[in-house]
Structures are given as structure tokens and as C-alpha cells.
From TrEMBL, chain A:
It catalyses: L-methionyl-[protein] + a quinone + H2O = L-methionyl-(R)-S-oxide-[protein] + a quinol; L-methionyl-[protein] + a quinone + H2O = L-methionyl-(S)-S-oxide-[protein] + a quinol. Residues 48-202 form the Oxidoreductase molybdopterin-binding domain. Heterodimer of a catalytic subunit (MsrP) and a heme-binding subunit (MsrQ). One of its GO terms (biological process) is protein repair. Mo-molybdopterin binds at residues 27, 30-31, 85, 120, 168, 173, 184-186. One of its GO terms (molecular function) is metal ion binding. This is Protein-methionine-sulfoxide reductase catalytic subunit MsrP. It comes from Litoreibacter ponti. HAMAP family: MsrP.
UniProtKB/TrEMBL annotation, chain B:
It comes from Litoreibacter ponti. InterPro entries: Fe3_Rdtase_TM_dom, MsrQ-like. Its cofactor is heme b; FMN. The keyword Flavoprotein applies. This is Protein-methionine-sulfoxide reductase heme-binding subunit MsrQ. GO terms for molecular function: electron transfer activity; FMN binding; heme binding; metal ion binding; oxidoreductase activity, acting on diphenols and related substances as donors. Binds 1 heme b (iron(II)-protoporphyrin IX) group per subunit. The lineage of its organism: Bacteria, Pseudomonadati, Pseudomonadota, Alphaproteobacteria, Rhodobacterales. Part of the MsrPQ system that repairs oxidized periplasmic proteins containing methionine sulfoxide residues (Met-O), using respiratory chain electrons. Thus protects these proteins from oxidative-stress damage caused by reactive species of oxygen and chlorine generated by the host defense mechanisms. MsrPQ is essential for the maintenance of envelope integrity under bleach stress, rescuing a wide series of structurally unrelated periplasmic proteins from methionine oxidation. Belongs to the MsrQ family.
Amino acid sequence: GIAGQGFASQYSTEEDLNSWEEITQYNNFYEFGTGKSDPAEYAGALTTSPWSVEIDGMVDKPGAYDFKTIMDAMTIEERIYRFRCVEAWSMVIPWNGFELADLLNMAGVQDGAKYVGFETLLRPEEMWGQKRNFIPWPYREGLRLDEAMHPLTIMATGIYGKDIPNQNGAPLRLVVPWKYGFKSIKSVVKITVTDTQPEASWNMINPREYGFYSNVNPEVDHPRWSQASERRVGGGLLAKRIPTPMFNGYEEQVASLYEGMDLRENF
Amino acid sequence: MSHPLTLPERVNIVLRPIPTWLVYLIGALPGLYIVVGIALALTGTYDLFGNRLGIDPAKTLEHWLGELSLQFFIATMTISILRDKFRLKLIKFRRPLGLLTFFYVVLHLSIWVWLDMQWRWSEMWADILKRPYITIGMLGFALLIPLALTSNNASIRKMGPMAWQKLHKLAYPAFLLGAIHYVMVQKVWEVEPLIYLAIVIILLSLRWRRLLPRS
């Protein structure tokens, strides 16, 4: 459908793509279970139409934005990004989507705003994982406003030119390619522009292991495993471990956002 | 006149003729399947696994072998309890089950070293020293090594049964470390590892007297 189209982009990598099967059968989406194949198995229960995104907080035009209205207003591009999970595996994914900045500008970000918070749909009757309380639902994430407005930051609505499947965060999800995957919150229903740092689910559960920034950084280890290297999914039994680049390879584009910051402190 | 047979006595009669080699053989089958599957995959001759291992086969094997280790460990540790509480005479199966536990732990560790970490010794060494769940898993493995090496009649004779039994109490801490290792690998409190941990704690509590030095 319309959500899955787009043009090529200067921001895309030319690395080998992961297959549709790999991208859609190996997911972390704890709303549908903690196993990697659980989301593909159970996400079919999720109703994604009708869908609207509530944009509130420090914006000129707060309100519930219908998904179709958003899609009519946005330009869909293809963005081929590296995707690095905090669990030290990675993929290369051809997303289709639009820049988050365009959506935020549509709502009109007010002066003094510093952060953007996001929430995933809360609907335990369709998302059975939400019946267990290992995460304080709904799943939430946050970015600094400059991170949110960065051209690399997109709302993805498609993969491989097709509408994004439920297990990957239908109908629209955040993608921030220089941060660990859990920052790229799925099935977004709420965006709040604010001047205080928003809550982020993994940071709430275990702040020692998951920082607010969670930028991909091979020099700052997760307390329970090294982040120096990663396994590229899809190489079969002998998938090669490869070194993890700073900011997941987007250092040139995003390093300036963190100038003067101690990345070990602000992990 | 003979009394009617109790249920444990009946079970003992049924199980008595089963030879231990059969336990070794059946117990080793999943491991052999994995080893042969990997060998065939490496040589590119045949795909024994098909789609069964999913998108990340190395991780799937690693987890599967870890679970098998715990399952065999639980079976091993249940034998003495079945004897004490239910008079089931399964002691001859304890050594095969114990050695099979070690076999699966070694395979689990090999997959980590080889397919997962790919011989990156410095990263692995750092992980062993720094990461509690890996430290705990490694410690559990280290405790099992002397047990595996002395799981033979010659060692019992050489050491004497008392010293041998004392050494083999190391199985208890190793058992607990294995279950804790599994719980700690997860990012959240998952149900399955906690069930394993609960089983391990229950089994240990049934045997806690054995852990105390004899007075």
C-alpha cells in the first residue's frame, strides 16, 4: 500500500540487505511475548485500522492525528539503515517512512520544548504480553528534541516497499538508526513534546543497564555483555561477528549532537 | 508367602533390565543430531536442521543446549531423591545422566566459544571476568570438570568412596549456579528460567542435609 513506497535516499547504506523473512520473523516486541519468533506468531491479533496518533504537549496544534491524514501529508522515502540491537545482533533493513521532523513540524513545536516522548498502544486484549507485568505498560521511549528533529530519525511505515507488518511495529514506528533498537519504539499512538526528559521503559526497569541515550557505542559495554562486536543476522550458523562502529556507523552525521558530553556518563 | 508388590518395587522390576548404554545412547541423541548437523552444514553437504533453528541458528543451538544441560542435571539430581523418598533404585542411571549433563554443558560452551564469540579470546576473557552471568556459568562448568573426570569405577577405588562422595557434593553448587546463570541471561524476569530455578531450589532443599558436613 501507500505506506510502503518511497524514493532512494542519500542516507541509505549500500550494505547487503537482510531478507524479508529475517526482518519479519526475528523480532523483539515484548507486547507479543519475549521469544524472537513470538511477535511473528502473535502480532496478527493486533488491529491497526483505524489508527491515530495523539500529539500533545508543547505543540501549536495538539490533537489526535488520523494515520491516513498523516500519510497524505508526508513524503515517503526509502531509508536503508543498519539496525543494531542492544543484544549485540544487527540487521540491514530497507525501511519506508518519513522524517519525524516533518510530523513534528506539522503539529508545530513550540519554543522551549526540549524533548519528545513516545508511547506504544496499550491494548492487552490484542497484545497478550501486556497481561504480564515485567514492563510497566505502555512501552514508552524518549528523545531529545534535536535527536528527534535529526534527518536520520524517521517514522517507518513500510519495509521492502510493503506496509510494515504488525510484528515490526505497524502501522508506524520510530527508527533512530544510531541508537540501540529498543529506542525505536513500535506501534506509536502518542507523541508528547515537552521540556522535561520523558520516561523510557528499559531505563525505568533497569537504569544501570539501559541509559536514556542508549547510543550505539562499542566502547561502552552493557553491564552483562560487551558491545564491541555484533553478529549480523542472516549469515546462518557461521554468521560472522563484525566490529560495531561508533554510533552504529552514523558518527559523521550525529556526533555533533553530543559534543562535549561524556558518553560513558550519558550512556 | 510373598506380599503384594508395592508400586516402587514394580517400577524397580521394570527398570532393572534396562542397560546403562541405552541411557547413554538415547540421552546423547539430541547432542549427536546437533553435532552431525553442524558438521554437515560446515562441509555444505546437507541441511539437517531445515528451518528448525530459525533466523539465528547459533543462538538457538546455544539456548537449546543450555536447556538440555539443565534438564539432564535435574534428572541426575532427582535420582537420589527418588531413592530416599520413594525407594526407587535408579542409582545405576545416575552416572550416565551426570556424564550426559557434562556432555551438554561442554557443547553449550563450545557453541558460545565457536559460533557465538568466534574465538575472540580477549572479549571472552573480559566477559568471564566482568559479566556476572558468564562468571557464574563458567564457575558452574569448572566445578563439573573434576566430577566428570572421576565418574568412573577406577576413580572411586583410587579415591576411596568417602573422599569420592565428598568431591561429588560439588554437584550441588554447580546445579544452583547453572540455574542462576539461566535466569540472569534474560533481560526481564522470564517465567521459564524461574521455573527451572524453582525446581533446582526444591531439589536442593530436599537434599540439604547432605550438604552439611557429617558430624
